[in-house]
Amino acid sequence: MRPPVVVGGLTPLQLRRVRDSIDARLDQDITLAQLAEDCGLSTSHFARAFSRSTGTPPHRWLTQRRIERAKALMHTEASLAEIALMCGFSDQSHLTRVFAQTVGVTPGRWRGTQHGPGMNMRQPPQRDGDAL
Predict the structure, then answer these.
(1) 16, 70, 114, 116: least buried by Cβ within 10 Å?
(2) For the chain, how far is it from start to end, CA to CA, in angstroms?
(3) Distance from CA of residue 91 to its chain's centroid?
């Protein structure tokens, strides 16, 4: 079944191309002009068409993808600073600010609530005398 084409929006091929491009370069600076070029559209036409197709402006969609990737990476042993860079944030404080605005809690607090069976989190090193 084909996805519906939104009048004034991107074609399914253009939308897939943009999503794939964003996901492949999430750790890099991605400009509206680059995404528009990927679709063969002017920047302003692309921004309107993308918003019509997704219901979200391109920058907000990119930010949401970065937050989703950060959440997935928080299930690994990577530090928040490493995660920030892997998701295209300039540093850990940038990740923290955007994550807290979007999710409602800081990345560290969110990560702390995700403990469960099979969680692959870094364990603090044990010092001599700490053993039970």
Answers:
(1) 116
(2) 59
(3) 14
CA dist., res. 12 & res. 39, Å (int): 11
pLDDT tens per residue, the chain (132 residues)?
655 555 789 999 999 999 999 999 999 999 999 999 999 999 999 999 999 999 999 999 999 999 999 999 999 999 999 999 999 999 999 999 999 999 999 999 999 998 665 445 544 334 444 444
In angstroms, how far apart are the furthest CA atoms of the chain?
68
Could you please report the per-residue DSSP string of 30-74? --HHHHHHHHT--HHHHHHHHHHHHSS-HHHHHHHHHHHHHHHHT
pTM for this predicted structure: 0.80
Dihedral sign from CA coordinates of 39, 41, 47, 49: negative
Q: Are 70 and 99 in contact (CB under 8 A)?
A: yes
